[in-house]
Design goal:
- The chain is 26% helix and 29% strand.
- By secondary structure, it is an alpha+beta fold.
- It has a single domain, classed as Thiol Ester Dehydrase, Chain A (Roll).
- It is globular.
- Bound molecules: Palmitoyl-CoA (PKZ).
- Palmitoyl-CoA binds next to α4, β7 and β10.
Length: 221
């Protein structure tokens, strides 16, 4: 199999179909994953810490002024290195929490196999919704991103989420290790019906979802 991937997606370990199916479905460009450097994970984690602090501090105005200047200086340093989609290590590095993406929940995959996926991690302070619970939208983000990985691992061509039904069963705590598991339950043509559950370490289901992923047709964005 080539090193090229569509939006970071390629078949799970030698499963199901050949290269053609994966490299010619959908209108995604073919990306070559950008390997993160040795300190990239620490860089992303430093930015997450900054986000945690941004939502959990009450700063004097002069500290805010100083912070604005420093953050702008940092942005000015990064700006000349801007690249187009697919040319940054962000999102392509499965060995890093959140695949090295600041958007994604900083979770790590424990199992990425044809029959399903398991990942583990915490919701951070900056994911707070209210009363120390995770914001419901961030739970949807966790599920939705996992669905992409489920499709990838199961060996199906790239797919998009047609619907994602989330059941919020219990309040989801912040800064507490949790486990997420999901899989493709059944396939009808291009339609992949998936389920996933978010549990605490006692096995209590905090949220679960049912989703329809649809394999993209050639040229579909
Ligand atoms: C090496 C390192 C590894 C890294 C590895 C990374 C891998 C990880 C990548 C992550 C990648 C992100 C993946 C996240 C997933 C998104 O978040 S995607 C973003 C959110 N979703 C979207 O933006 C989708 C927007 N919608 C669309 O583009 C189109 O509606 C769709 C979903 C492509 C479907 O359109 P279509 O192809 O025209 O399909 P259509 O003919 O309408 O329907 C096909 C069938 O599905 C049914 N259907 C369609 N929609 C629905 C619906 N909402 N409800 C029920 N049935 C429906 C139709 O009834 C039809 O059924 P049949 O008649 O065939 O029985």
């Amino acid at each position: 199999m080539s090193e090229s991937v569509q939006s970071g997606v390629r078949p799970g370990n030698g499963v199901r179909s050949g290269d053609d199916v994966h490299e010619h479905h959908g209108g995604f460009p073919v990306f070559t994953p950008v390997q993160a450097g040795p300190n990239y994970g620490e860089f992303v984690e430093s930015l997450r810490r900054l986000q945690d602090l941004a939502v959990s501090t009450h700063l004097p105005d002069d500290v805010v002024d100083d912070a604005i200047a420093r953050v702008n200086a940092l942005s000015d340093m990064l700006e000349p290195h801007r690249v187009s989609e697919g040319k940054s290590p962000a999102g392509f590095n499965r060995q890093l929490p959140g695949r090295g993406s600041l958007l994604l929940l900083p979770w790590l995959f424990e199992k990425v196999e044809v029959d399903g996926i398991r990942s583990r991690g915490v919701f951070r302070l900056f994911h707070r919704g209210g009363n120390s619970a995770a914001h419901g939208g961030t739970i949807g983000l966790l599920f939705d991103d996992m669905l992409g990985m489920i499709v990838y691992a199961s060996g199906h061509p790239i797919a998009r989420t047609a619907y994602l039904h989330v059941n919020y069963r219990q309040v989801t705590p912040l800064e507490t290790e949790l486990v997420l598991e999901g899989r493709v339950d059944r396939v009808e043509g291009r339609k992949l019906f998936c389920t996933a559950e978010l549990r605490d370490l006692d096995g209590t289901v905090l949220a679960d979802c049912e989703a329809l992923m649809i394999e993209l047709l050639p040229g579909q964005p």
